[in-house]
Amino acid sequence: MEELLTVKEVAEKLKVTEQTIQRYIMQKEIPFKKIKRMVRFRASEIEKWIDDGGFESNGVGGLFDESENS
């Protein structure tokens, strides 16, 4: 099963504020899952969203660089 990310984790990866991610959620601009009252994100869906032009990274490196998890 793929790990689910929190709003905070996605914001940190994208180098934006949690409020920006919340705005994306409210405007349904970012792929997310709602589990009861919790909002979670699949890393693969966020990667695809970025690849499809949903987020302008302004030079940010790979979103889920393996070296970050080491």
Structure description:
With 70 residues, the chain is an alpha+beta fold. The relative contact order is 0.19. 37% of the residues lie in helices and 14% in strands.
Low-confidence stretches: 58-62, 66-70
Q: Could you give the order of the helices and strands?
A: EHHEEH
Tell me the count of domains: 1
The CATH topology is Multidrug-efflux Transporter Regulator, Chain: A, Domain 2
Strand fraction equals 5-15%
Q: Tell me which CATH architecture applies here.
A: Orthogonal Bundle
Overall average residue pLDDT: 84
- Biggest pleated-sheet summary: 3 strands, antiparallel
The N- and C-terminal alpha carbons lie at a distance of 20 Å
Helix coverage percent of residues? 25-40%
Annotation field: number of helices? 3
What does the overall shape look like?
A: globular
What order do the strands of the largest sheet run in, or round the barrel if closed?
1-3-2
